[in-house]
Specification:
Layout (H helix, E strand, L loop, with lengths): L5 H27 L1 H26 L1 H19 L45 E4 L6 H14 L36 E2 L7 H7 L5 E6 L2 H11 L2 H4 L7 H6 L2 H8 L12 H5 L11 H13 L2 E4 L3 H12 L27 H10 L1 H45 L5 E3 L8 E3 L1 H7 L3 H21 L2
Parallel strand pairs: 1-2, 1-3, 3-4
Antiparallel strand pairs: 5-6
Amino acid sequence: MRRLTWYSFVRLFHRIKDNLALVTSFRHLWKTNRPLVVLVGGMALLLALYTYLLLIIEGNYKERQKLLIAIRNMADGASLLNNQRTMHEHKERSSNFPIITMAPFPIDGDRIEWQPPDCEPRQNFAFVKVHKAGSTTAQSIFLRYGYVHNLTVMLPGGKNPASFSWPNLPSPGDAYPVSGGVYNILTHHARYHPETLRARMPPDTIRLAIMRHPLDHLKSMFNFIHLNTKYNLDPMNPIQNFLENLTDYAEIDSKFYDGRSPTRNFQSFVLGFDQMKDFGDEQIEQQFRDRTTEVPFVMILEHLDESLVVLKRLMCWVLTDILYDWTARNYRRFYYKSSSLSQLAIDNHHKWSSIDYALYEHYNRTLWEEVRKGGKDFVLELEHFRMMNSKVNEHCRIDPKGSRSFPATKWNAAWAVDAQFCRQLRQERFIWDWKLSMRQNEKIRRERLNP
């Protein structure tokens, strides 16, 4: 036992005095500035907890992975009984058709043995990739489909590797040549041009596109090319400032974006219309009738999942063909995205982009007609697709190098997601372009060596 000396008693006395002073100071601070004490104390506690958890996670990473996978597998048995939407909710726009929401449904339908579709998959298609309308997500699905099924994809051969002659119509020499000279898939940026499609693609090619609500599209375009600063608009609500003063901006707007208007009928422009005209024009209305016949189905971004299930049925594809990565592509947050607009601004936009509104309303109505035709079976398949897409995205996020098996159901054969599928699910366009060009160039090389 240590000997107690006079010096030890002195040190103990000073420690007690210091602690009492500290307590007194704390009591004074607590009385005078209690919120600050609570805030600082809470932050310190959270920091300590975060550090503790970080040390545990770093020290037991493999165990954590096994635990998460085990929990996930345990949840599978109950997920069909109480599946809730985990996908982000698409907000309802100016449509009379509500977003489908599902109550928990029984698993009896899933016990039905999967039967392959009694039709041939449609593998020749041209997708009109509309800027800022969710088209990159759709393009990723189509590029994966083309690569997995060994199809020939039309790749840009000009200066811009992402588009064909933009903003002009496609020309004969702006695509890389391929074996046979005929393409199965078009999915890069290109203005819709029926003559080009007839010359380069098989006669049974189906034409597809994607659109979004015109007002949301305008906001996204504003943010994408920074029109709020380039037009020197009111920083608090540039969209309203622009739409309420269209006569002041119309002339410079039509000359700003490669000689085209980035704000007026832009989606219609990509679909081959003259964007500077209005829907009431006789020529435009005839073109509208022709276009809606030539392009039978257009996906709607606000109802992407419903659109993909309709697409699957239309194309006679399988569920794995339409799975997609939830990671937002080309997504940017901007403060005026949800800004409210005056009725004057909304009315002006309807007049300014009347062709866009006519097309959007037509194809949105067409989508919901297909959903209603599908009845209860469509609703069940839609919910099953959302559940499967959720599980696949979860697996690829938690265990991207592992594998996971899925049993056969009424809507899909038994299959397994593996590291390759996870990689393809998130693969960027330029990687697909490189892989496809290597494969397609190899075919040409072999033909030249073995004529």
